[in-house]
Amino acid sequence: MKSYPQLYIDGRWTDSKGGRRHIVINPATEQPASEIVLGTAADVDDAVVAARRAFDSFSQTSKADRIALLQRVIEEYQKRIPDIAEAIAIEMGCPISVARTAQAGSGLGHLANALKALEEYDFAEAIGDNLVVREPIGVVALITPWNWPMNQIVAKVGPALAAGCTMILKPSEEAPGSAAIFAEVIDAAGVPAGVFNLVQGDGEGVGTALARHPDIDMVSFTGSTRAGIAVAKNAADTVKRVAQELGGKSPNIILEGAPLDQALPGGAGGVLLNSGQSCVAPTRMLVHRSQHDEAARIVGEIFAAKPVGDPLAEGDHIGPLVNQRQWERIQRLIQQGIDEGATVAAGGPGRPDGHDIGYYVKPTVFANVTPEMTVAREEIFGPVLVIMPYEDEADAIRIANDTPYGLGAYIAGDPAKAKTIVGKLRAGAVFVNAGGLAFDMPFGGYKQSGNGREFGKFGLEEFLEVKSVIGKLPA
Questions:
Q1: Closest by alpha carbon to 147, among 257, 260, 244, 273?
Q2: 3-state secondary structure of 192
Q3: Closest CA to 301 of 388, 358, 375, 367
Q4: How far, in Å, are 93, 146, 318 from residue 89 at the CA level?
Q5: What pTM, to 2 d.p., does this model score?
Q6: Annotation says 279 is catalytic
Q7: Which helix (H) or strand (E) is 247 found in, with range?
Q8: Contact of 243 with 452, CB cutoff 8 Å
Q9: CA dist., res. 88 & res. 179, Å (int)
């Protein structure tokens, strides 16, 4: 069992003040995978003091200094990718091949794009004789989830460092090991003491203390909409900035007449990736009624053929869900889909054959799903896809937008027709014909999927304040 017993505060590893031991369960074996100590409000206070003290100098560093710092972080990060991938695989069940590439690899991508954004960004803009300058917002709290642990950590830490902010990171207690390794990366790269602090903990304890803390200027949060609402309420009394990337229930519109053998695999794969534990997964597939049954057959065969297996084994399989609570929730939702009249085209309740141990789920497809069904409305967060028939383009757009979420939307089919639909979809990102995430494009949601944007220069700007300097100054 891996052990990460200390917090990283003010440039050194330190014991928690009153924290308690927390065991992380390997979701494939149901045995202990790692242990941490959950921090306390007193630990948060120490981290904020360190970050506030460091901000005075770090905020005044030059662009060149921060470029050099990010370059050192990238160099050290590359050395630890195998360790990061292993931690992700054993703690949250992502297959090692995906943990090494998409999971740990995304962290490297975000660091590279934060560096590029910093190199290209102009922090001052002349408007007549006056000047607009952009400055680091201050001390920021970064609260990140378990499903893409390193992706979300680095999508925040990279631009925060580029902006000149100091920070306290609270990763999810469900997958904390990669965050501890990342703190070792930060230390090895020579990031100044107090600039980056790691306080392990849960939402109720450390998360709440961070959101409420009067000396924190901003909270950047990724997680469920329910938790995001709590963060915003806790932050409101101190009027701090809150940037949030929350839940999703992304529609995937298969345009009428699209060749299904080409249009369907991308969307199906997007749901299966990471065992469906992705906020932007295209979990609602909208198909013209004339093609619905054929689509259900094709997607059902794709899901039925998807192997399920050990996260530490190489291969093109999916792993288990993150924990027992999530497994029980998804079993309940699958049964509810059946009870409400959806047709099971693949999968169903229970564990896959040969997997009596571990939080494994049968990759499941529901067909003949109507918009009022629970499986069409709730974010399931597992390898479960629903297929919904539509009558015409207007009906497809109506169904697509009939959700409180607005993180992503997908279109497959004629690009010219897709172009006419993009502006009608209420989502922060629209992916056309299996277009994937780009680390230099803004990522964030409409409606209850959050506010603010991450990635590239857009992520950098979230951590900046805007100051007007009015009056002519010497050149």
A1: 273
A2: coil
A3: 367
A4: 5, 11, 11
A5: 0.97
A6: yes
A7: none
A8: yes
A9: 10
Structure token digits, residue 186 = 């930060």
Q: 408 with 280: CB under 8 angstroms?
A: yes
Residue 120, judged by CB atoms within 10 A of its CB (0-12, 13-18, 19+), counts as exposed
Q: What is the pLDDT of residues 82-140, one digit of tens each?
A: 999 999 999 999 999 999 999 999 999 999 999 999 999 999 999 999 999 999 999 99
Find residue 198's DSSP bridge partners: 8, 169
Beta strands in 195-298 (DSSP E): 196-198, 218-222, 241-245, 251-254, 284-288
Q: Which candidate in 245, 379, 454, 462 is catalytic?
A: 245
Nearest-5° angle of CA 238, CA 114, CA 185? Answer: 85
Structure tokens that stand for 284 in this block: 């609602």
- Provide the total of helices (H) and of strands (E) in the chain, helices listed first: 15, 23
CA separation (Å) from 471 to 126, 129, 163, 220, 415? Answer: 11, 6, 25, 34, 50
- Three-point CA angle 332, 226, 203, nearest 5°: 105
Between strands 284-288 and 384-390, the pairing is parallel
Which three-class secondary structure state does DSSP give residue 141? Answer: strand
Catalytic residue among 279, 379, 454, 462: 279
